[in-house]
Design goal:
The structure is a homodimer of 344-residue chains. With 344 residues, chain A is of the alpha/beta class. Chain A contains 14 helices and 12 strands. Chains A, B: Keywords: DNA-binding, Transcription, Transcription regulation.
């Protein structure tokens, strides 16, 4: 990795003290309360236009910025929505969902921060989130239990929302039903006349909460049919795919659900390099409906996944914040449909 | 998009009041100062083991979590490192860099939050960051000017670090020299005997701060040679690539630097569908060295980009926080080397 050496250099002047609302009050010749009313746009108190202007000018001259933490201490709650950064590799689909959500919450005047939880686990992570006193917490993936919800609520969070495959006691749940993704893929392959079906299970850590429900979905789809299911562990690396492809004829499979489009691209390349014909000898289907699947030859069949809109989720958060005593809501929010192209 | 309807439900009991350190002090039968000393592990004050135990037990029983904001108000500064979320689409390379950085800062006892800046611009964004009173701010991309640095420092940030192509007055700069990426690619194509060189310029908003320096790098590499350079605007969409490929013979190019591996994959597919042979008729090179380039046929040549290690950057942030009066440091941190495969 590129090294950053320490460069010694001449010292610049010591930093100025941070201006406070008391400094603004002094310069404007008003009380601190007046400064607070003006800068927070409080409508319940009448303040003359010239006074308002004097406060704004003094704040500008001093470079005064209100302190969100101090303000939330006074107000009793913040407008901070905390999202722990997910502990799984984030794909383009999820990235777009997150930025749409941030945009929608921003429109509702919330401040969204993504908390880097790398290296923090369980209770320790939850306490670190709670220390920031968020008004709402959105937790992707598994990892939060009912106790964690208690800690967050006990620290003033008015809404806790989980995005995952299981609801958690006390929290609103957006259920991401990844079994439906596998079910779609399994039914499609069965409908295409395939009976010896492989399912890729990524070896990468952090993907289990997606891959195991997808696997179960395929199993459920094939339940009661004559089709067989074979689990295919695969790392996202060329040599892992080459080894799997080299043993392909022995596995005697006529179809594979490759977990997602990226693993499908990896495996399809290895199969083609091995001389296995897609889809004649083996049908391949991915998931996520990424651009790259349309660029492969044969064009990759896939499961298109629909996430909830950021706007809908932002509205749920806002409702929950306004009414923290309301019973937790549970919504199934993941839509899955097959897009049939040339590989299956 | 999946709709989240409002589900009415029975109300659960109103939330309990948030426990404070005063509650802990009362239950443990000690002063608030003692609670603070114990829970912050203050070493300058001697407190007996039984008292410590009583405080910890009381805190646990009440579910008390310290308030990071209150603590930072008392301490005069926080341990919060704020990173505005970048305003460009984030690739796998950058994602890995961010999580490595978060991990390294976490090890140094900082709390890292990524601030969702969607919809906020310029001064407004800077003021929103400043309201959280971060001890350090890491700003990716362009968009922060010297005035913004002043606002942040005036609000107590001890270190402001930019990651981009230009240094900003008053801030430490990690210069990401994307000209070097283009220069590498241009020299490589010229060395391979190509003289009519196209450069893909993505139409997508937010990529200019990468694409324009890369374009300039190619131009510089070809300066003083007989080679020509043609700009090729391209949207990341199949129809845009198909249109470009359909007009390819008229363009009369024998090489193309495709901005990155994903645009290279898109363009190479369109060229091959059009019957243009790669690399015989046109050499193609991407950038980023993603897995997908190795899976294409012909295997994609690329520019491997080395980002600074998260650990080095975390140490720079920590040094800057400890010595806020030190002169801003500037480091060139982006390494670029060609990986020659079969497409060029």
């Amino acid at each position: 990795m590129v090294q950053i050496p320490k460069t010694p250099g001449p010292s610049s002047p010591a930093p100025r003290p941070v201006p406070t609302s008391a400094d603004v009050a002094r310069l404007a010749g008003v009380s601190r309360a007046t400064v607070s009313y003006v800068l927070n746009n409080t409508t319940s108190v009448r303040i003359s236009e010239p006074t308002r202007r004097r406060v704004h000018e003094a704040a500008k001259e001093l470079g005064y910025v209100p302190h969100a933490a101090a303000r939330s201490l006074r107000a009793g709650h913040s407008r901070l929505v905390l999202m722990p950064a997910p502990d799984f590799p984030v794909g383009p689909l999820y990235s777009r969902f997150i930025s749409e959500l941030q945009w929608a919450l921003g429109r509702l005047d919330y401040t969204v921060v993504q908390f880097g939880s790398v290296g923090l686990h369980g209770d320790e992570a939850v306490r670190a989130w709670a220390e920031l006193r968020p008004v709402a917490v959105l937790v992707p993936g598994a990892g939060l239990g009912p106790q964690g919800v208690e800690v967050l609520k006990g620290s003033g969070a008015r809404a806790v929302v989980t995005l995952g495959s299981e609801p958690v006691d006390g929290a609103h749940a957006l259920l991401m039903d990844h079994e439906a993704v596998g079910h779609c893929a399994g039914s499609h392959l069965h409908d295409r006349g395939r009976r010896r079906i492989g399912v890729v299970v990524p070896r990468e850590h952090g993907l289990e909460s997606f891959s195991l429900p997808r696997l179960k979905g395929v199993r459920d789809a094939l339940h009661g049919t004559t089709a067989t299911l074979t689990e295919l562990p695969l790392a996202y690396a060329e040599d892992s795919a080459a080894r799997l492809a080299a043993s392909w004829r022995d596995l005697d499979l006529d179809a594979v659900f490759a977990y997602n489009d990226e693993y499908a691209m990896l495996l399809m390349r290895a199969l083609q390099d091995e001389g296995v014909r897609v889809p004649e000898e083996v049908a391949v289907i991915g998931a996520d409906d990424l651009m790259l699947g349309r660029l492969l030859r044969p064009r990759l069949s896939t499961v298109h996944i629909e996430l909830p809109s950021g706007r809908d989720l932002a509205e749920l958060v806002d409702r929950a914040v306004r009414d923290p005593a309301a019973a937790p809501e549970t919504h199934k929010v993941l839509g899955a449909t097959v897009i049939h192209r040339d590989s299956s």
